[in-house]
Amino acid sequence: MAPSRRIAVVGQGFVGLPAAMLAVQAGHSVVGYDTDPYRVLRLEHGDSYVADVSSARLVEALHSGRYLPTGDPDALEGFDIALIAVPTPATDDRPDLSCIEAAAKTLAAYLRPRCLVILESTTYPGTTVDIVAPALETSGLTAGRDFRLGYAPERLDPGAGLDGVVHVPKIAAGIDEQSLRAVVEFWSGLVDTVVPAPDIQTAEFAKLVENAFRLVNISFVNELTRDAAVLGVSVWAALQLAATKPYGYMPFHPGAGAGGHCLPSDTAYLAWCLRTQGHPSPLIETAARVNRNQPGYVAQRIMAGLIRRFHTLTPDRARIVLLGATYKPDVADVRDSCALKVSTELRRTGAEVIVVDPLATDVNGVLAELTLALVAQASAVAVLVAHHGLDYDLIRRARYVFDACGVLEPGPNIEQL
Description:
By secondary structure, this protein is α/β, with parallel strands linked by helices. The protein has helices at 16-25, 37-44, 55-64, 98-108, 127-136, 162-166, 177-188, 200-231, 235-242, 262-276, 282-309, 338-348, 372-377, 392-395; strands spanning 6-10, 29-33, 67-70, 81-84, 90-91, 94-95, 116-119, 148-151, 170-174, 194-196, 319-323, 352-356, 366-367, 380-383, 401-403, 414-416.
């Protein structure tokens, strides 16, 4: 086991908290710094808000005496290694690096010779060298000469659990050979496999490639749903048949759209970066546009289905129950949820919309349980997020079911996307 070190993890969200727990598990002493006092309070009480870190695991880390959640920046003093794991949102399709800059400037006050800083947040090529390094160098120390600086993008699969992170290869990069060795050494003590990158810019680009690949393919099959509807065929049956090919094909599935932090924001980072270089990517930008429009398309399909079945029904008399508010199945995360965007689109028609999701009850107006009364009174029930715990037998009893996830067999009252 690697020697125990003092680790500072700036940002205790969906990336930072799992990283902090892995570092504690490896025997390090960890300071989990976050500027959100409510988060810090919950962490201090052993109450995890990240699905991949159980409260039991958090309590174990607290009881070990090697994990300190705090909002006091002075607790960062004396760190050997610092991870920057803060949000990188996109505003109007432009990168917002304010959190990264703020984190780097906070760390600069506690930087010391021979320490290591690793950026974990997804971002565009050049961020570590052009944004993080200068902010850290306000300390008077120089990156590469006085301290080491690297990049190791997160690879989390929400819902897979903290132990699953250990088995996913981790990309590591450094601004020089010494920094690269330090990043590889640290993460080799936390995960099974570390993959060294030739340079930081390539590692930053690789992370965007991973997420753009997924968004392009999800947008492709979502566009195919529209083509299939025009041609009068089942996109689900066609995709199932295509998936029998054992080479040259990877299955992706339609739905209400790709949400969460990673896919929409990260692809916007890549598109923006290419535009600034005078080399826009029509494919990536088209995929992003298809994804933005998908919730509206799903809402239109639901309303069209209602009109076909109930010719006298007007939108303002429709009562629609939507199942799902999170951005993916079995994960209590509603960031950039396309299901919630469908809800917004339907409400604009004047319809009464009721959202049910047992994992998103913290969201205002979302109900925890689907009841027989809700189903009986609904003009339509739409499955937008296929959580495993949903009562699909009850859903099938609705007068009209719109299945955006392909989990129910089509029937007289069941229409698939």
